[in-house]
Amino acid sequence: MPISITSSGDTVQFNVRVIPRAGRSMVSGVRDGALLVRLAAPPVDGAANEALVAFIADLLDRPKRDVHIVAGQKSRDKRVRVGGLTARDLGARLSGILPA
Fold first, then answer.
1. What is the pTM of this model?
2. Residue ranges of the chain with pLDDT lower than 70?
């Protein structure tokens, strides 16, 4: 897996690099061990953070309540925690999106 994942039971954490104000929300690959996510939302009043949580929840087929930004609230570099997934589950879900 090209991104750095830490896991504890059925919870995983990984780094995300966010590029706000993109044409559309999408995963663009990996940069420096972090999942590179382009978001259509602007970085104003927490809109990009809310969009990131919704995007990751949809991407990983988890409810939004299971996705939390644990570090980097005001930064483009964030640490995201997702409950209900193991590292193996995350790897399988991202394998179809990320280059080998």
1. 0.93
2. 1, 99-100
